[in-house]
Design goal:
This protein is an alpha/beta fold and about 120 residues long. The protein has one domain: Transcription Regulator spoIIAA (2-Layer Sandwich), CATH 3.30.750. It has 4 helices and 5 strands, in the order E-E-H-E-H-E-H-E-H.
Length: about 120
C-alpha cells in the first residue's frame, strides 16, 4: 500500500511518497495537502526517493498541488526522482513546471531566503 509521510521542518513540509501516486492514492495526496495548506503551509518538498510509479492521475494531483501553492504564494519542489518516474516527468515536460533537486536537503536549502550582507 502506498503511504505519504508528512514531516514539517521550519516552514517547509516534506512529503515522502512511498510506492506510487496513482488513481487510488492521488485523492489521498490532494486531501492531506489541502488541509495543511489551509493551515498555513506554503513550501512543500515531495521526496520521491521511494516513489516507484506515477500515473496520469498522479501527475494531475501534482499539478493541482502546484496550482494551489502558487495561489497562496508558495512553491513545491520535487527531490530524488529516479527511474521511470523521472522519465515520465521529463516526457511530459513537467520538469519545466517543477523545480527538481537531487535530494531533499538541496531542495530544502533552495527555500532559504538570501541574507543581506
Amino acid at each position: 500500500m502506498e503511504t505519504y509521510v508528512v514531516e514539517i521542518v521550519g516552514d517547509v513540509l516534506i512529503l515522502r511518497a512511498d510506492g506510487g501516486i496513482n488513481t487510488s492514492t492521488a485523492s489521498q495526496l490532494s486531501d492531506s495537502i489541502g488541509k495543511l495548506v489551509k493551515g498555513g503551509i506554503t513550501n512543500i518538498i515531495v521526496d520521491c526517493t521511494k516513489l516507484s510509479i506515477i500515473s496520469s492521475m498522479g501527475l494531475g494531483a501534482l499539478l493541482m498541488l502546484h496550482t494551489r501553492m502558487k495561489r497562496v504564494g508558495g512553491e513545491i519542489r520535487l527531490a530524488a526522482l529516479s527511474g521511470a518516474v523521472v522519465q515520465v516527468i521529463k516526457m511530459t515536460k513537467l520538469d519545466r513546471v517543477f523545480e527538481i533537486y537531487p535530494d531533499v536537503e538541496q531542495a530544502r536549502l533552495s527555500f532559504r531566503k538570501p541574507t543581506k550582507s
